[in-house]
Amino acid sequence: MICTLCPRNCGAERTAEHGSGFCGMPAGLRVARAMLHQWEEPPISGTNGAGTVFFSGCTLRCCFCQNFSVSRNTVGSEISEKRLSELFRELEDKGAHNINLVNPTHYIPQILNALERYRPKLPIVYNS
User: Fold this and answer.
1) Does residue 31 sit in helix, strand or coil?
2) Cα 58 from Cα 71, distance rounded (Å)
3) Contact predicate 114/108, CB 8 Å
4) What are residue 67's phi and psi, to 5 degrees?
């Protein structure tokens, strides 16, 4: 795929095996971690935690990034859209206050497909 998903519009070739451009990610969906995250801002994490999905790669490249190992490296595993929808349900079942998508921009098509499979009854936070 020729990627134009983020505002950088780099036109990178993202294949199943290789990624280039600012995010550095291949075309597949890669997640570093999904968890109840207690350490976001209090309005996001609430008392039980945000249902956070940390996506691998990032288009921002902020010099002060606290998630450098996830955003700049290839940490994480490739998962299916079906598995992502299952993660949304699991986080909701654990009592998450929301589904907190961290660095989601370069995976928007897959996220939307996962939300079609299962739409949590929680707010979705677009965290970039």
Assistant:
1) strand
2) 5
3) no
4) -115, 35
Do 12 and 2 form a contact (C-beta atoms < 8 A)?
A: yes
- Which of 43, 69, 71 is closest to 128 using CA atoms? 71
Supply the pTM of this predicted model: 0.91
C-beta separation of 6 from 18 below 8 A: no
> Which among 14, 31, 15 has a CA at the least distance from the CA of 23?
14
pLDDT tens-digit map of 67-103? 777 777 678 899 999 999 999 999 999 999 999 999 9
Q: Please list, in sequence order, all residues whose beta carbon lies within 8 angstroms of the beta carbon of residue 106, skipping any fewer than 6 positions away.
A: 3, 5, 6, 23, 25, 55, 57, 58, 59
Joined together, the tokens standing for residue 5 give 């998903």
